[in-house]
Amino acid sequence: MAHVIDDNCIACGSCEPECPVEAISPGDIYVIDPEICTDCGACVEVCPSDAISEA
């Protein structure tokens, strides 16, 4: 199951470079593509607003 980014996202960009499969895209809030996400959790560790969790 892929991780998701919720409305607590502050669009800081910390998560995007951490994703080894480039599943995270920028926007008003960042979005994780569930088709690409391998559920590694690297993004969770760097998110300063705790906006990323398991779906």
UniProtKB/TrEMBL annotation:
Ferredoxins are iron-sulfur proteins that transfer electrons in a wide variety of metabolic reactions. It comes from the Bacteria. One of its GO terms (molecular function) is electron transfer activity. Its cofactor is [4Fe-4S] cluster. It comes from Balneicella halophila. This is Ferredoxin. Residues 1-26, 28-55 form the 4Fe-4S ferredoxin-type domain. Keywords: 4Fe-4S, Electron transport, Iron, Iron-sulfur, Metal-binding, Transport. It holds the Pfam family Fer4.
